Amino acid sequence: MTPRHRGTGGRFLWPIVLLTLTAPPSPAADPVSDALARMDQNAAAFQGVSANINRVTHNAAVGVDHTETGTMLLKRPSPHDMRVLITFAPPDEKTVALQGEVADVYYPKINTVQEYQAGKYRDLFDQFFLLGFGSSGKELSSAYDITSLGEDTVGGEKALHLQLIPKSKKVRDQLPKVELWLSEKTGYPVQQKLYFPSGDYQIVTYSNLKVNPKIADSALRLKTPKGVQKVYPGK
């Protein structure tokens, strides 16, 4: 082939090279959309979870933090059937159980159960349960305005840090903002931060998370000794 022919071939290639160099970059992946899609996938197979928990409650009025540790069992047989048992370790022993429309808190030191009608707080309970355990991304995005705060690390695990603002004014009056850390590995929460109107907040961190363990219904029932006193705050 003569040099002239090579030059002609070059003229045909240059427009292709220029189009490649000047083409707009591929759109960057949206971390929020990716996280919500992952939640949709998880929700389809979710039945329950067990985990160790660490809860830090900040009292804004006195500037004091209170730390509690314990375990959580959560079972979700159906989208509208959530059963939870949280047991906090000493020195502040208590057990919190949610079954249907009833929430019980047992204090062994005073052998007393406080019973609450969860239906009165249904909107708020629903928001808590939306935060990553068994809820779909569609459910979360319909209830919250969601913003990515970037990547973070919690307990040595990489996580996507999200800010959630409730869309419902009724919920926002009780829970103005939530921060949620979703594991990049599993798509499930490793940490939640709940903000309250008083300026108080709670940070709940999850570890040793096991998804879909076998949880018997009996393991979620509140067990109390004979003679326990039951009271009904708010009635």
Q: Helix tally? A: 5
| Topology, number of strands | 12
Q: SS-based structural class?
A: alpha+beta
In angstroms, what separates the terminal alpha carbons?
Answer: 97 Å
CATH topology grouping: outer membrane lipoprotein receptor (LolB), chain A
- Strand/helix succession: HHEEEEEEHHEEHEEEE
Order of adjacent strands in the largest pleated sheet: 7-8-9-10-11-1-2-3-4-5-6-12
- Tell me the number of structural domains: 1
Instruction: Please estimate the helix content.
Output: 10-25%
Q: What average pLDDT do the residues reach?
A: 86
The main β sheet shows up as: 12 strands, mixed
The CATH superfamily is identified as Lipoprotein localisation LolA/LolB/LppX
- Strand percentage lies at 35-45%
Which parts are unreliable, with pLDDT below 50 for 5 consecutive residues or more?
2-20
How would you describe what is shown here?
The chain is of the alpha+beta class and 235 residues long. The chain has one domain (31-213): outer membrane lipoprotein receptor (LolB), chain A, CATH 2.50.20.10. The protein is built from 5 helices and 12 strands. A 12-stranded mixed beta sheet has the order 7-8-9-10-11-1-2-3-4-5-6-12.
Characterize this entry briefly.
With 235 residues, the protein is α+β, with helices and mostly antiparallel strands. It has 5 helices and 12 strands.
Topology record:
Blueprint: H1 3-22, H2 31-45, E1 48-59, E2 64-78, E3 81-88, E4 94-99, E5 102-107, E6 112-117, H3 122-130, H4 137-143, E7 144-154, E8 157-166, H5 169-172, E9 177-183, E10 189-195, E11 201-211, E12 229-231
Parallel strand pairs: 6-12
Antiparallel strand pairs: 1-2, 1-11, 2-3, 3-4, 4-5, 5-6, 7-8, 8-9, 9-10, 10-11
Helix pairs in contact: 2-4
